[in-house]
Amino acid sequence: MPRSAELPYHHVADVLADPAVPAVYEAILADPRPSRRRLVEAGHEPEAVDIALTVLHVRDVIDATDPEAIEVAPPDVAIPAYAALLERQARSLRLATAGLAQTYHRVRTPLIGEDSGLIRRLGSFDEVTGVVEKLEESVRHSLYAVVAGGPRMERIVAGGHSAIHPSESGPSVEALAVIDASIFELDGAASEFSRRQSFGYDIRVGHDVPFNLLVVDRESAVIDTSNTDPECAGSVFVRDPTLVRALIHLFLLMHEAGMPLPSSATATGASGLSERDRLILTLLAAGTSDTVIARQAGVSQRTVERRIRAFMDQLGASTRFQTGVQAVRAGLI
Questions:
Q1: Distance CA 327, CA 333 (A)
Q2: By its UniProt entry, which PROSITE patterns does this protein fall under (predicted)?
Q3: What pairs with residue 236 in β-bridges?
Q4: What is the pLDDT of residues 291-321, one digit of tens each?
Q5: Residue 199 near residue 165, CB atoms below 8 Å
Q6: Considering the entire predicted model, what is its pTM?
Q7: Average pLDDT, whole number, for the chain?
Q8: Which domains does the chain have, with CATH numbers?
Q9: CA distance 160 to 163
Q10: For residue 49, how many other CB atoms are within 10 A of its CB?
């Protein structure tokens, strides 16, 4: 190989588009006994010949191990083979792009905990509460809430947090909420969420809700972990569009899977059941105990047990769980 064979491979790549390379290649094809000396004698610059021989050798279109006795592969075989190699390299490069981009953005994006403008760690209960209240005050189009529990939820149920009135926030504010069944262990939970329904909230009851969540106007969100950590460790304020969309998708799945909380606005409903009976069935289907159901419905535990037994007989169910499932299927809740 000529001395240019000692050039680093990245330098070879830099000269792939050098017009001297195809010119030298054409001269090699036209010469029955090509060599470096004959190429130079034909008028090609020595340095250009050295670079071209190195590049063509790397491409496997010639064998320039001995530059004075160059072996040439048929171009109709060598060039398609080289093109296939380039295609494989291009595919590998495209596959590597995502990982490279992730590395690039990871080292240039502020860590969570710094105010990047897209994601910010919330370091205390007071900070979470302050951000949530500011978001609620700014709502224009939609408000999605997940209530899993924790001190802020206890404050809400105790009446220490004013409910947003969707009808007053704008002409078409969409207010949806999912509350965990465990919230009903708090005295007054049923009446508080019934009050919020009267303001225009569409409330569903879920089970094993993982964390508290608030999404406002599909633009900003707060993940509140106070239900698992009183210090709110891991709570974040989010404005990153991709993450907000993912949280919205998760919320809508939870809302669709939840059971509607009975509303006093439709006290008898299509089922003919009273609001109290529908509340009993809803909390039953959510897995709450008779004691909790009695406290929320404002009746004795014996009354709850009697109503559940009547529903079991009516629906042909043999267990409490089956009663809840059959009530949903029958459209009673």
A1: 6
A2: HTH_LUXR_2 (PS50043)
A3: 121, 223
A4: 888 888 888 889 989 999 998 888 888 888 7
A5: yes
A6: 0.56
A7: 79
A8: 3-73 (1.10.10), 129-260 (3.30.870.10), 264-329 (1.10.10.10)
A9: 10
A10: 25
